[in-house]
Amino acid sequence: MSAPEQVHDIGRRRAWVIWLVALSVYALAVFHRSSLGVAGLLAADRFHIGATQLALFTVLQLVVYASMQVPVGVLLDRYGSQRVLLVGLVLMTAGQLAFAFATSFPVAVLARAVLGGGDAMVFVSVIRLVSVWFLVRQAPVVTQLTGQVGQVGAIVAAAPLALALDTLGWTRAFALASSVGLVLMVAVALLVKDSPYRRHGVERLKLRALAGSLRTVWGNPGTRLGMWSHFVSQFSMTVFALLWGYPFLVSGQGLSSGTAGGLLMLMTVWVVLSGIVLGWLVGRLPYYRSWLVLGVVAIMVVVWTVVLLRTEPAPLWLLVVLVCVTASGGPASMVGFDLARTFTPVEAVGRANGMVNVGGFLASLLTIGLVGVVLQVRAPGGVDAYDLDDFRAAFCVQYAFWALGAVQVLRYRRRALAHLRRVHPGAVEQMRAGVPFVHPGIGNHEGV
Q: Which of 141, 211, 271, 313 has the fewest CB atoms within 10 Å, measured from its CB?
């Protein structure tokens, strides 16, 4: 079979236009995902629910998100990013609109589940577009930019959404948010192309071959190293931004809603700033990528320990440090995709990225659920009864996931390096010298 004909330049103007449109969809997905962070207390009043039920909103959304990552990766490698992005936009728009008009807890939960299904299709679609539309030297930088700039959605979900909820009310604020998806559907349909090639090698794998390819990708220790790196670094930021950070700052630390919203906005700004530094370090030190992840996690553990040991509200400067350090976990989690790319060729990158993306969101949903359980046990009276001691106890569940993730990163780092030495001689020495390793293609021995 002849090589596919290239009809568009790679890494040029069209690539950037496609990326910007896809990035806008990701920013919208982050907004929808983060919207409950500032609406949690309102949701508790609207649906007459306690901490466990409030946590169920986000837990179910993340369960749907995480469980769909591998199937979405398969669909991406088969159908391309444009179709998957369009389906994701339809689901997110429908879910947010239903949430706007929901007046009962079951309907609201179903709406968030639909929204989570749409959200699950977005990020890995954008990352796949980056892989095929940008040059090898550009892709790592654009991947970091995707994670950083996409967090604009979280900024809009902080203070601006809180203001909209105050002025427009629940229904109109969320309905207005859902309408943005209609505009982006048109943009994706008109501007996003799956590949710069006329025929872009869509895989038509039979079920047995598909299962074999998934085993190969998952069996590669580099995929698992990426997944556990994502697991250990992302969940604390997600838990804080999506649900429990705002109640912790308001009910636990005694801040006003405006100050709490400002800290959540600062958190997102810090994602961008820290991501620039971390992206530069990852490019310069490819051999030490997993150590960079563990370094960020160690700093998070120290700062959280200082805050949780206090029996009285922390001073504002310390809370600023806390949200900034916690936010650094977002860029650190992006390193997981860069690690997976080292071990995975482009034809399987959708599946590998889907598996990596499961890590952080699995840890997030478990942590969110356990924090809700601890709060419910300690303060069954509901959100109005929470105090600082309740939050101190609840947030301690993070330590179990930090410990598990750190052990697994160290374990699979050793296995991944041994794999490269065995299968790709010279790759480890190349990375030690500061030169990223580009995967030459996959073979049956890759997953062993």
A: 211
